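Task 17 of the worksheet. Students: predict the tertiary structure of the chain below and write it out as structure tokens. Keep your answer in the requested format; marks are given for formatting as well as content.
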Amino acid sequence: MRSRAWAAPFWAAVACAALAGAACSGREEPGVALALTDRVGEVSRYRWVNEVTLSARVEGPEGGRVEVTGPAIEQRTRAEIYLTERLVSVDSAGVRTFESTLDSLSLSAFEAGEPVPIPRAGLLTSSRSPVRTQRTAAGAVLRVQTEDPALRWVAEMFHVANVGAQLPEHTVRVGDSWTHRLRLPVPNAGIEAQAVVESRLLEVRKEASGNEAVIDVRGTVGRLPEEGESAPASVSANGTLSGVLRFDAQAGRVVAGDYGYRIAVEVATRVGVVLRTVAEGTMTVTLVEA
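Model answer:
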């Protein structure tokens, strides 16, 4: 009988040790607040790489006036950008204004294994001018200020890679998740898709600089809003976005992000012509200098 008396508390203690003691001690793990830096003047430099394969095919109704126009086209592109970002101001509502400058830009494209010329002169000239973005503390983009459409696309895609779409607007603990929506530019397709993204805090690492949050990011891309009845074509899209983000909670900036995505878009015209495109690629962003 005596052996049974001590056995229960002994095995309870073993179970507590196996579970790291958090539940047994009654102590709850502290939450972590994730927000972009509010230290005006802070500068970060990033390396951003986007690689995508775009395949496209135009089809028409058999026996109709419009015939299939040709075989599928496949093009691979790679963009490598070094970008410096500086926090210019924070207003009374907590909106951050960042100023970003492209330090260097490398572009390449291949079609059927052959290099494709890229008209980059205008982009390189305008890249000397900074792009301003206004963001909430959670990273949601409110406004992009630039007169160059190419630079606007770069700024929007860099935002997606840089903050995994959006940080939580409240304190979170390991295992917590949050959901948000965003518009995702489709590379080389000239349109935007809508994505619903769910992020989850996987762990908080103790680094020399402080707490580093590791976040799992997964999203689904749904249909674009249907155009009006008078529109010459309807557009639909579907796909996925997934990756991992590392965020320095003390410094309020991204350490690294690594994502993969696949987006299929279909454009159907009233005359029966259908354009089908698939963009599949990867995005990585790395803090190279602070």
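Marker's comment: Residues 1-30 form one domain. The chain has two domains: 1-30, 31-289.
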